[in-house]
Amino acid sequence: MSTTIGLFLMVSYRDPNFLKTLEAYGGAADSLFEDASTSLADNNGPALTKAIIGAIGDMDGSAISTRGLGWASLERWLSGQSAAMRQNFRDEVLATTAEDFTEFASRLNNWKYISTASITSQSGLEEAATGGMNLNVVSVG
Fold this sequence. Notes:
By secondary structure, this protein is mainly α. The protein is 57% helix and 0% strand.
């Protein structure tokens, strides 16, 4: 997810279960609705805490190399992202509630411009077609 340009992506790399992954992406909003109304519903519950800690961990990552720090600094400068903005975002993540998950699931369900782009093998394409996926194939190269 890009907080600076409003882009949300679901990405898989070298996925041996191409069709199942596409189905999981398609069912993400329903799954999030279910989780928000069950295991995340207790705002002080372990599932919500685990989700928040996971999000903060993804944001902060592990120790960054000098080269990585230079790149991150350049990206932040180019996007106009300040330390205060990043801290504000962290604070918002730490204050997340089950209702926030429900709202996000609703947004996923109401997405107007959904697109799927895949680079896959012929067998992955055949698997998707057998599973009922109607994909438009564009050959590159």
